[in-house]
Amino acid sequence: MENPELIQISQNQESSIDLKKILKLVLKHIKLVLILTLTGTLIALAVTVLFIKPKYSATVKLYVNNKEQQEQGTSVNTGDISASVSLVKTYIEMIKTQSLMDMVRDRGGYSLTNRQLLDMIKTGQLNNTQLFYVTVETPDPQLSASIANTIALSADEFIEEKVQGSSLEIIDYATVPKSKSSPSIPRNTLIGFAAGLVVSALLIFILAVTDTKINTEEDVKQVTLLPVIGTISNFDQASRGGYYGRYGYGSTSNTQNKETSSVQD
User: Residue 161: which of 109, 78, 85, 97 has the closest Cα?
Assistant: First the structure.
């Protein structure tokens, strides 16, 4: 049969790291928290500004068109629109093919591999409509716009040749971006700030776990059920007032008073 006292002590030890203790540790090591947080923020800012090369994005928007209905001069019904919407994902995948990348490289005269071109491209459908976009991100703003427009022109020819009854219309050509799209200095700085806080929290948690010293009556109660019958005063503070206190036995004040009385006698 297990000792109830040992069970109680074990439960106290498991709950020893409470919020009050953690708060005390945070306040005790507040300088460490501030230093690590500031360091993380400055490192993230420096890396973003000095080491990450800025990139620029250019976007072209395209429209999936029902060419057959246009040639016959008939109106487009809901079924035709639904068919065009369903074709958007197919066209997006066709844009990412090696055959289309070959057309883009030949047409634009780019000294890039197909893999490099594909890594620069992001595509997506706009609000489940017949519209979709192609975004190109490179370190050169003019190159980004040039590749985006070349992809749009090449895709129009490529899809019209491969898919009968449908075509693409370029709604918005890409323009040369005036501002960088990445990296984001505020976002990266915030990440550095958060990283500094996380490191600080981990260090404080480690300090709390590894702290086995008994400093207060609460610490004693966590390791034993025996009552506390007395405490020992802080000797550093007691020595400032005398041997055992400011006005206790053997204090400097009492000695000085006795000397003064003897002189007056």
Answer: 97
- The per-residue pLDDT for range 41-80, each reduced to its tens digit, is 999 999 999 999 999 999 999 998 765 544 444 555 566 6
Domain membership of residue 34 as a residue range: 4-47+187-231
- Answer yes or no: are the C-beta atoms of 3 and 189 closer than 8 Å: no
Which ranges of 15-61 does DSSP label H, i.e. alpha helix?
A: 19-28, 30-50
Q: Quick check: is 66 in a domain? A: yes
Burial code of 103-135, b = ≥16 C-beta within 10 A, e = fewer? bbbeebebebebeebeebbebebeeeebbbbbb
- Both tokens of 113, joined, read 């591999």
What domain count does the chain have?
2
Q: Do 135 and 220 reside in the same domain of the chain? A: no
The owner of tokens 């700030």 is: 193
In this structure, what token pair is assigned to residue 120?
């620069």
Residue with tokens 């990445």: 182
